[in-house]
Design goal:
Elements (H helix, E strand, L loop, with lengths): L1 H102 L15
């Protein structure tokens, strides 16, 4: 029985040594696991930033396209307005020419003749 008691004591001692070693390993691994957890969180955040960046880039592209379209519309409206103003100026100039040609410098046309008799 002494032999089996010695074996049992040896196994108990080995089990305790193994448990102590596992405890020490866990203690040593805790900082490593914590660091890995932080890196995992940072990686997820970086992925989120990448997604945000992609969304912002798409929004910027859309805004630039909208701006380009508005600039084209503005240019078209500006051209149309210039053409309409040019036409209006031409019409006004022609009307002024016609008015000046119609009067022909004839003045009142004899409105003062009635006062000279008398």
């Amino acid at each position: 029985m002494t032999d089996s008691a010695n074996k049992k004591a040896g196994l108990d001692q080995a089990a305790r040594a193994l448990a102590d070693a596992l405890g020490a390993l866990e203690t040593a691994l805790d900082p490593v696991l914590a660091k890995l957890a932080r890196q995992d969180t940072q990686l997820r955040e970086a992925d989120g930033f990448g997604d945000d960046r992609a969304k912002l880039a798409a929004q910027l592209d859309e805004a630039l396209e909208t701006r380009r379209q508005r600039e084209e519309e503005f240019q078209a409206l500006s051209k149309q307005t210039r053409e309409e103003l040019d036409l209006t100026i031409q019409v006004l100039q022609q009307a002024l020419k016609d008015k000046d040609s119609g009067n022909g410098g004839s003045g009142n046309g004899g409105a003062g003749d009635g006062a000279s008799h008398g």
